[in-house]
Structure formats: C-alpha cells, structure tokens
Amino acid sequence: MSTPPTRRALLGLYASTLRAARTFRSYNFRNYFMQRTRDNFRTMLVESDPTKVSHAYEQAVSELMVLRRSAVVNQIYGGLPLCIEEESHMPQRTQVADTHI
C-alpha cells in the first residue's frame, strides 16, 4: 500500500492541471477541462480513505500528461475563436448621421 499524497501535493497537481486546461485554444474544451478538474479535485480532497486518494492521485497524474499532449494538439488545430471569445474585438455600432432631406 502506497502512502497517500500530502495536501500540498494534491494542490500542486490541481494547479498544474488547471494550468494545462487553460492552454486549450478551444473555448469549449478549455471550460470543460477546467470544470472537470475542479470537480475531480473537490471529491479527492474530501475523500477519507487513503487508498482511494492514492489511486485518484495516480490517475490524475496520468490524466495530466494526456491533458498536456491534447492541449498541444488543440493549439495547433484549434480552429477559429467562437463569438463568445471575441466580445472585446466586436465592431462597435456607429450611429449614421441622418442625411435625408
């Protein structure tokens, strides 16, 4: 039986996983993986069984490696930004002067 990870190790892995999730270029993937990370680590922090915590930690480490590789691929082939992401770049409506005589 392996020793359970410390709270500091869990929080470090959490931060690394969130950092990797933020590197996704695609809005939907980015938000999905950030929410999934939050949910997974919330359940991991409240778990009291050391064996389950160790198993969840090891699984999260392997998922972090997959997430990092997937983020690189998504950065290469991410596609165009969604309209939700382009809010600051949207053209402002200008009022046209009334030219009717």
UniProtKB/TrEMBL annotation:
It comes from the Eukaryota. One of its GO terms (cellular component) is L-cysteine desulfurase complex. Pfam families: Complex1_LYR. GO terms for biological process: iron-sulfur cluster assembly. Residues 9-64 form the Complex 1 LYR protein domain. Belongs to the complex I LYR family. This is Complex 1 LYR protein domain-containing protein.
